[in-house]
């Protein structure tokens, strides 16, 4: 289990009352509350937990990098064009959350092509619990309702069936195969799957 992040107080109970169909923002506007997860801007204190997750074989196979993930994570946290959010889940009801992974989004702001893209990694120990879908739904709801994007996109590896199922639960649909889209650590190329979601298709 990755270590808890430091310096983050649990939000009050009324702020954690998001349902599966909502993404509730706290009064400061920095936290997004889903049914289970809380999304918040990642900080330096989160780096040990996020690095431990990135180093797991399941995540490393998809995101690669390392062996020292610190510089990359610091760059992501400090980035202006990509918003990099820590995913927190409670260890128990009412307890402070622990870092379960990260989710990020970036925008194409050209008004003729405006849309947002999402990417996520999650602690493999928490897979198959609906946490990934909750995180994606929470962020997608924010991007549609608050940032006013009419279209979102995500691009898992074409053979990453668990991720594809996760995104489909939120309303993402396959658009097409991007052939030899991404290079693997061994130098070979694999296909990617472009999926997108229109605002009216979001499964809340």
Could you give the topology of this structure?
Blueprint: E1 24-25, E2 32-33, E3 38-41, H1 47-54, H2 57-63, H3 70-78, E4 82-90, E5 97-108, E6 115-122, H4 131-145, E7 151-154, H5 161-170, E8 173-183, E9 189-198
Parallel strand pairs: 6-7
Antiparallel strand pairs: 1-2, 2-3, 3-4, 4-5, 5-6, 7-9, 8-9
**Computed CA radius of gyration, to the nearest angstrom:** 16 Å
Tally of alpha and pi helices: 5
| Secondary-structure class | alpha+beta
Low-pLDDT runs of 5+ residues are 1-20
Percent helix, as a range, is 10-25%
How is this structure best summarized?
The chain is α+β, with helices and mostly antiparallel strands.
Structure write-up:
- The chain is an alpha+beta fold.
- It has a domain at 13-150: 3-Layer(aba) Sandwich (Aminopeptidase).
- It has five helices and nine strands.
- A nine-stranded mixed beta sheet has the order 1-2-3-4-5-6-7-9-8, sandwiched between helices.
- The longest helix is centred in the C-terminal third of the chain and has 15 residues, at 131-145.
- It starts with 23 loop residues before the first strand and ends in a 6-residue tail after the last strand.
- Residues 1-20 have low confidence and may be disordered.
Record keyword descriptors for this entry.
single chain, alpha+beta, Aminopeptidase, 9-stranded mixed β-sheet, 9 strands, 24% helix, globular, disordered N terminus
